[in-house]
Design a protein that fits this description.
This is Sulfonate ABC transporter ATP-binding protein. Keywords: ATP-binding, Nucleotide-binding, Transport. Belongs to the ABC transporter superfamily. Pfam families: ABC_tran (PF00005). The chain is of the alpha/beta class. It folds into two domains: 143 residues, Rossmann fold (3-Layer(aba) Sandwich); 64 residues. It is 37% helix and 25% strand. The strands form two sheets. Strands 5-6-7-3-8-9 form a six-stranded mixed β-sheet, with helices on both faces. Strands 2-1-4 form a three-stranded antiparallel β-sheet. Strand 6, helix 6 and strand 7 form a beta-alpha-beta unit. The mean pLDDT is 91. The structure holds adenosine-5'-triphosphate (ATP). Adenosine-5'-triphosphate binds next to strand 1, strand 2 and helix 1.
Length: 260
């Protein structure tokens, strides 16, 4: 079954103008992301992963090339709330409860109180925080706070979830657990996910498609379609298929480096 393309970049280029001169962040990026894909972006620090994600979210404007999100310009897609964005830090307001934080975008969007309640409850359940709505952020662990921020991004039911290194600051055990939960959530909701990471195992474990980027100016060094099944227990990381894909990611990272 062929899936609809939800994000398409064609020959995208982005140069930041700074006081120290131009910074060429993205170069000739062409990529298609389909409905239900889980796409990870991996590459060396400063290669433009965050910039690309922010460009999809219309938080940056490309200098050249084309970008469509659900057939619209990135700006139109932003206005239509086509995606939720999860940042590196949970970014929860300390004076609001967890439910209050998740409710905030819904308040801004003008949902009625009863609609807000239904949506908040639903997403709290999705991220397994059903009993924590009345707690304040400081009463939750780092991993739970990050789950709450995912819930906030899911609350208005956007089809696309953009995640910028959401688990980078967490210890490995918590991160493994959150990776497992995120995969389950993705399977249940059929969202399209764009995910930035520095971790090869995380990228291979989560993704249907891995985009390996070269050092700045960020280009696509390789796009790997995963052969792993959709159902992935954590110990799949010891399977020969997993190790082979991880090896190809590593090769892509190395090849990208040797271009310069
Ligand atoms: N607003 C900006 N103005 C000027 N330069 C910027 C701006 N945002 C990013 N850059 C530069 O663009 C390049 C790409 O940055 P970006 O944050 O996208 O990289 P990254 O791959 O996400 O890095 P990391 O893995 O370290 O988070 C970097 O050299 C960065 O300094």
């Amino acid at each position: 079954m062929s899936q609809a393309t939800v994000i398409e970049a064609k020959n995208l280029d982005l140069t930041f103008q700074t006081n120290d001169g131009p910074v060429h962040a993205l170069k000739d990026i062409s990529l298609k992301i389909n409905q239900g894909d889980f796409v990870s972006f991996i590459g060396p620090s400063g290669c433009g992963k965050t910039t690309f994600l922010r460009t999809i979210a219309a938080l940056e404007t490309p200098s050249a090339g084309e970008l469509t999100v659900k057939g619209m310009s990135a700006e139109e897609a932003r206005q239509k709330r086509a995606y939720g964005f999860v940042f590196q830090a949970a970014g929860l307001y300390p004076w609001r409860t967890i439910a209050g934080n998740i409710r905030l975008p819904l308040e801004i969007m003008g949902f009625s109180k009863s609609e807000q309640n239904v949506k908040v409850e639903k997403v709290l359940e999705l991220v397994e925080l059903a009993n924590f709505g009345n707690k304040f952020p400081w009463q939750l662990s780092g991993g739970m706070q990050q789950r709450a921020s995912i819930a906030r991004a899911l609350a208005f039911d956007a089809d696309i979830l953009l995640m910028d290194e959401p688990f980078g600051a967490l210890d490995e055990i918590v991160r493994d657990h959150l990776n497992e939960q995120l995969l389950k959530l993705w399977a249940r909701t059929n969202k399209t996910i764009g995910f930035v990471t520095h971790s090869i195992p995380e990228a291979v474990y989560l993704s249907t498609k891995i985009v390996v980027m070269s050092p700045r100016p960020g280009r696509i060094a390789d796009v790997i379609e995963s052969t792993l099944p959709k159902e992935r227990p954590l110990d799949i990381r010891e399977s020969p298929e997993f190790i082979e894909i991880a090896h190809r990611v590593r090769e892509g990272l190395r090849a990208g480096h040797s271009d310069d």
